[in-house]
Amino acid sequence: MQFGHFLYPMKFDDTRDDQEIDQCLDEAVLAEKLGMDAIWFAEHYFTGECVYGDPLVFASAVAVKTSRIKLGFGIIELPLHNPVRIAHQTALLDNLSKGRLMVGTGRGSNYNAYEYVGFGTEPALGKRQLEEAEELLIKAWTTDNVKFDGEFWKVAFPSVRPRPFQKPHPPLSRAASTLPSVIEMAKIGRPVLIRGGTFDATAEQIEAYRDNMSESGFSDEAVQNNLDQIWVWREMHIADTNDQAWDEYLPAHYKAYEHMEAVRREWNPDGMEMNIQRPPMKREGYGKIPNPSVGELLIGGPERVADQIAMMRDMGIKNLMLTNRGLISKENTVKSLRLLNEKITPKFRVD
User: Fold this and answer.
1) What is the four-CA torsion angle of 49, 46, 73, 191, rounded to 10 degrees?
2) pTM of the prediction?
3) What domains appear along the chain, each with residue ranges and CATH number?
């Protein structure tokens, strides 16, 4: 298995932005020092839901502070950008990182219509634009003398420079949060980033991805290659005991959820259809023994979290994007990462 540190820092106190961004940089350096496989970056604006906001700028800083660890976008909200500019920015970042870049895309936030409005667009348009934006992005990465005549973008230019370091381009995945969207990506052979749900639901999505990609005519080797690129996002916090971990994480998690729901009620315009975020599972839902059929986070002592990860591994999950959403103190964040990498991950890196 591979383990990624997902830097998704929910920091709502705007008087500490500089300090929180510095802490994110420190966490990135620590993740590499501890031997983690990837650092992932989010993209959210206007509220501090992701304190650094722009993942492309922030990832560039991380690229020059690290040397080995992979860098992944989970995700770039592609309809908020010009795909040709994204091609230039990611090609440069791929060179700065010497080929460590992974690009995850999506139509944008599932819940925050105000992010679209803030950039002069709206969710329905973003959904319609996504496939064309990805098509143009790939063409810009890989083609000379580009002439593209789409519904949303009509462009012509000689080439993107610098060329991506990785050939033909950095690995490209798309966020998929429902079974139909996972199946859609399987049919075109696009790796996916999967978020949330129960362990059982995630296992069902991976099985459906495998079956539908095979049924669409892809070779066994191609199917296996894509399965190896699927990353699953989970919230995680580890302490010495289950109770300590739950006490440190869950109250802050509930408070952050309530804060974001209040922001959405105030700022999401009426008439813009958006998903409703499901409330996090209450503490009483966590038992001593993990339950794969309920919406557990990876929260607990080392033994409990190791049991959860073993369940996920046995269900075909190979790569985990793990985040505490910046809701834990710096001291406890460092301790959690050390517990993960010293007591848990060695059990899952054996061939």
Assistant:
1) 90
2) 0.97
3) 2-348 (3.20.20.30)
